[in-house]
Amino acid sequence: MPASTHTVTNQPPPLVDYDIFAADPALTEAVARHASPEHAEAVRAELSELGLGAGSAEAQEWGRQANEVPPVLRTHDRYGNRIDEVEFHPAWHRLMDRAVSAGLTDAWSRPDGQLRRTAGFYVWSQVEAGHGCPVSMTHAAVPALRREPAVAAEWEPLLSSHTYQPGLDRPASAKAGAIAGMGMTEKQGGSDVRANTTVAVPLTGGGAGDGEYVLTGHKWFCSAPMSDVFLVLAQVAGDGGDGGAAGDGGAGADGGGLTCFLVPRVLPDGTRNTFRIQRLKDKLGNRSNASSEVEFDGTTWARRVGEVGRGVATIIEMVAATRLDCVTGSSALMRNAVAQAAHHAAHRSAFGGILADKPLMQNVLADLALESEAATALTMRLATAFDASQGDGELAAQERALLRLAVPAAKYWVTKRATPVVVEALECLGGNGYVEESGMPRMLRESPLNAIWEGSGNVQALDLLRALQRSPEALDAFLAEIGKARGADHRLDAATKDLLAELSDLDGIEARARRLVERMAQVLQGSLLVRYAPAPVTDAFCASRLGTDWGTNFGTLPHTLDLRAIMDRARPEVP
Ligand SMILES: Cc1cc2nc3c(=O)[nH]c(=O)nc-3n(C[C@H](O)[C@H](O)[C@H](O)COP(=O)(O)OP(=O)(O)OC[C@H]3O[C@@H](n4cnc5c(N)ncnc54)[C@H](O)[C@@H]3O)c2cc1C
């Protein structure tokens, strides 16, 4: 309908109803090169279906609604009974349903499972990031549970199910699928989980089985508290345990210490376990997702997972997988922001021409696209390493060693790039970008989170130092990986040489850890782009990120590069 005062012109069409997967060459090419040949077509088709769903106007609207109407805590029912439930907008459940039914919690037993799931998580989280939290934790709980085969036999089929069945009206064993969360962080310490004071006491008598405990204490951050089950750290009385920060494998136990427990919301007989949700956090972003404070009152039933005193070593299996999802989530956020910016600039005119034709805007968009493409390439390489590291043999050991350095490096670097990328992409939309309905403010609020949870920036950098000191095979695997691109670009070769010099100098290494880690991440990204990306992308990345031909803000690439080619590659084609 024409407006009565004016005609609306020069506004871009909505970026909806397109295949988010197919419109992303950096992603489709990565999936094609890493997928096993016999599964490549099936994986592509599956991701394309998810991409069409993610790009639909309907799903985008679910994302908006789930954030506009955040979850509400219901501590009691109308009669005063404690229920500790969280109420969500129906759009949240639609998002969860689609994610679970697309297999985003099922990676550990399918061929190319990590690759297809990581790519799927990347595609689907562009609809909405908040529900990625329980999706991620459900997927990630499996390797930790496998430390206790009887527990895994019970829970793994539920967690990797493709059926989403919310609600606490029955025990999980009577459901077709379950969702998992985790509780590590307490008021007095998060990174340093050795400070945990929650206590676990073994249940004895009355038919209590081996490995049953009751918990007393609290968790200061516990996201997705409506989930069916949680992996929780608590102290068992005794003479110590593995200690270690949340990046540490631990050192062995003797009689007690920090231990991992499984805490279900509903007990096998259908009654509620004691799981007191005190408050929901009022967060900067991630507003669709409920993050809570929880208390355990001495009757909270728990089952031990892994050895007593080896809690960190057990739960780190979960954290390794959620850290990959932090990298994936931030890569997806950057991709989404760049796609929005490139789309806007392709349809908006100023000063007599399309913005995307203006040389300076091309520089900004190309610079942003480089950051996004490098993040995507690294994410997908990590996913492949997760797949390859599952088996036995030399390749699996090599890939495990690579992950030991590449995961903290990527978790540190990629998650930290998200905020500056989103800020600059937002500005490409001008004033519209600052307005909520563009979706950019939601992305901006979300952008710092992946750097904080699952081990903040410094913790990642220190974890990488620890791996360098304790696992010499990890550095060998890392150098072998970047060595695959040796000789292909002189700037990559020079950056690798400088990195080796940095690595061999231990003076002040703790204070230098961030510098070292970011260089390792960039060199790894550069080596992947040199091997796989088109020449304009490789050339620009090596000149700016590995060389010195770059300014401080985005949009400062050397003008002689093929900026248009880089920018065009990042622009989603909408039919
Ligand atoms: C939205 C949200 C949801 C969350 N959900 C969960 C959840 O479901 N379950 C859960 O267990 N936790 C959850 N967390 C908690 C999160 O994992 C922690 O906040 C995070 O690990 C940091 O711990 P902390 O808050 O105790 O900070 P601290 O450990 O006090 O760290 C503060 C700062 O000090 C730095 N630092 C720490 N140690 C060192 C050192 N040795 N040298 C230099 N710097 C150091 C850190 O990098 C950080 O920047 C959530 C957090 C948020 C924001």
UniProtKB/TrEMBL annotation:
Keyword match Cytoplasm: no
Cofactor: FAD
Origin superkingdom: Bacteria
Record-annotated Adaptive response protein AidB N-terminal domain positions: 10-166
UniProtKB keywords: FAD, Flavoprotein, Oxidoreductase
InterPro entries documented for this protein: Acyl-CoA_dehydrogenase-like, Acyl-CoA_DH_CS, Acyl-CoA_Oxase/DH_mid-dom, AcylCo_DH-like_C, AcylCo_DH/oxidase_C, AcylCoA_DH/oxidase_NM_dom_sf, AidB_N
Limits of the Acyl-CoA dehydrogenase/oxidase C-terminal domain: 309-468
The Acyl-CoA oxidase/dehydrogenase middle domain, residue ranges: 182-298
Alphabetical list of PROSITE patterns matching this protein: ACYL_COA_DH_1, ACYL_COA_DH_2
Keyword Oxidoreductase applies: yes
Gene Ontology MF: a single term: acyl-CoA dehydrogenase activity
Classification via SUPFAM superfamilies: Acyl-CoA dehydrogenase C-terminal domain-like, Acyl-CoA dehydrogenase NM domain-like
The family this protein is said to belong to: Belongs to the acyl-CoA dehydrogenase family.
Listed PANTHER family: ACYL-COA DEHYDROGENASE, ACYL-COA DEHYDROGENASE AIDB-RELATED
Entry protein name: Acyl-CoA dehydrogenase
